[in-house]
């Protein structure tokens, strides 16, 4: 046996594990324990409440929470349960699943998220939405700028009404080759997809996972503030589309301006590739599903908008006779019924429709669990009577500021929170019980706080590496994350300024 055969190979150093940011569920579990421990250190206190339950400025006072260590330990143990269906006693204000009183937990929002998950999954199972976007791209294949605008506008509409984000990952296989064939680069496709859907989510009008959850946590209607959010959506979407088109035209005129560069074979494609690409036609069935989906979301918007207040500008206006004033229980029922109707229109059959609805609800359990965990944190704060103490501390920071400055501060405060908790639902449920009452002190509509919060969450999610939409998108398009940041930072700066202007104006006019 040779020496070479008996010599042991040198040990290789163990590969370093790549750090991965914990999930929203893990973050909220850590936050729950941290808040529970802090409750032992933060003094208990409370405000006097008016007839609407809002804190009265200047009435804060220290009180004894009256909780023993065992009581606090029980609150920690039951936090997720209380976050789902905890009941608040009207006399003591304590929350427990065994109380009699008003529902404090997020059972309504929890079921709403599962219902809309079932509906969205049924719609995607029909193939109508995918094929509809594919047909749009194919029809506009010879008009590059119009194609970019059309795709981004559709994604933005879906983003603002139903939080269309992760669903965009399935469109890179279609959009990237199409953009290359038209003389653009991969970054153009990334911008059209991520920024198109992202700006819609940033300016959510009735997005149930952002505006809906935040409005519920702020104890206002989903339709409150929709005029401001709609104006933001129009302006910011137009600016974002113009930004991507401007970049795309520069690349088409001179490929040297491409930030992403070109991979081998990218420049071999030409416009003939788009002619030979086969995109199936929309069948009558697909058209029916698309029409039904549009009608469902249109009816949702109609059902939640306080039309008398919106049309007269008077927040206390008597509602019109046709107003439905629907909330999450009715909306949950709406989307469950709509899921069944879409399945019937698509001729799915009983077994496939049932399994698709169940699968859709299962796929959305994660964001639903995030909501109840975050609500469980607020229960701990409520029962230990530290919520008003934290509110009083923040009140001292914003006291004396103008309404516009207050709205901008709310936007800025939520930026780091959005990084730590990329789940919009969890972020909203956690932050709103503290931020919404501040609006009462500042003389600002709580709807402005909701708008400022969701703008912060949406702005961060356009670029932070903790979101699967951004990291997954650049990976699918084979574009470096550093290059994406170089591409997007000027737009981020523009959107930052516009957001501050909109929330400040919205606060001033309320």
From TrEMBL:
Pfam families, A to Z: DcuC
Annotated transmembrane regions: 21-42, 103-125, 145-163, 169-185, 192-214, 226-245, 289-308, 328-349, 401-422, 434-456, 462-481, 488-509
Main subcellular localisation: membrane
Keywords on this record? Cell membrane, Membrane, Transmembrane, Transmembrane helix
Q: Which InterPro entries has this protein been placed in?
A: C4_dicarb_anaerob_car-like, DASS-Related_Transporters
Q: Which domain of life is it from?
A: Bacteria
| Alphabetical list of PANTHER family matching this protein | ARGININE REPRESSOR (PTHR43652:SF6), BASIC AMINO ACID ANTIPORTER YFCC-RELATED (PTHR43652)
What is the name listed in the Swiss-Prot or TrEMBL entry for this protein?
A: YfcC family protein
